[in-house]
Every structure is written in structure tokens, then in C-alpha cells.
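Q: What structure does this chain adopt?
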Amino acid sequence: MDQALNILVARLLAQRFVLRKDPLARRALIDEVFRESLEHRLADCGLQLLENPYAEHIAVALQPQMEEWVFGEGDAWLSNNMGLPRDGIALLVVVWALIILPKRERQIARVAIGSEDQSDMFGAEKPIEHGEGVAQGISEDALYADFGKVLGGKMRFATNLGQLTKLGFINRRNRMIYEGPLLDLMIDYAKLAPRIINGALADILKLTGTQIADDVEGSHVSD
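A:
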């Protein structure tokens, strides 16, 4: 078991994320003894496992008590420790709201894109689906048309999209934005979703990128 743990920890550190259907990742999710050993090994290094049944990958992050020791030389860690500027955080929140919220609704209802109005009496018994069958992409052009001006303009918008791609939050293909491996792992759904649903983005076009970032500061983006 030690060798399997070593391999999984090394892959998580080197690759940043591992598909949950990977054999070692699956073992960590279903084998209680293996999971406990993995969490203890990560904890010894100040790390924690990131996983939820709605995400297609697993990853690791710093334990909260370690963040200041690692990132505390400046003030960036107070709002995030991914090195994102405030308009980048705001763009991330908008993308998260447009992709993850509807994805989570489809996953809970066990329906695919385009089947939301169809009833399935056995839907609750289906396994949770992942990937583009439930996570719909969004158009870069439409996103910029709706939010670009309040998120820094064309240059900042393009730069921040590139940064979110590099960090693993999104994938981009043919001017479409899709869920990246870390989008549903690195942001706390339980904290942010109620704020979004209760109107944090309702007046987003009236806000600046800085104000949006301020409004979601309580939902920490971590590495």
C-alpha cells in the first residue's frame, strides 16, 4: 500500500489533479483505510485532499493553517493564493456561476444537457455524470459582451482568461470556455453558491471587477 500511496501523492503534486476514475484515485475514494492513510500522509506535509462527488478530478491544496506560512509575505493570500488579480477573481466567479451552478443542478437531478424538461422516475438511482454531458460550455464572445467592460476591458479579459486556463480552472476550444479540472474543486460551493443564488451577481453589470471581488472575498480560492 505504501508504494501505491507514494505514486498517488507524487502524481497529485506533479500533475496537480488526477481523474477520479483513475484506479488509484478510485481506491482513495472507496477504500477507507487507503483514504485515511492518504489524508495522514498529506497532512504531514501541510496538505489536504480536495474531492467532491460532482467533480471529475481530485486534487490537493494547502491546509488553511498553512496558507499564511506559505503565502503570507504579501497580502494576496488574503483573498486568494493563486496569484490572481482582483479582476481575475471576478472573472473566475462569473465563469464558475455560469458553468458550475447549472452543472450541479443537472447532476443532482441526474439529467444531461438538453434533457432538463424530461422526467425520469429512476433518475435518482443513476450515477452522477461528469464532463461535458452536464457541464455546458460558454461562448467567450458572449461572456465578453455581457461582462467584459466591468471586468477590465478586452486586454484584461483576454489576459485573465489565459491565466485561468493556465491554472486549470477552464479549458478553451474554438472560442468556447469549458470547465477545467479545478473549477469545481478549488472554490467552496457551500459558501459561494448561496451568495450567487441570492443575488451576488444580480446587479453585476452595475459593479466594477474590484467590487465583485470584494463581494466574494469570503469564498476563498485556494491552491
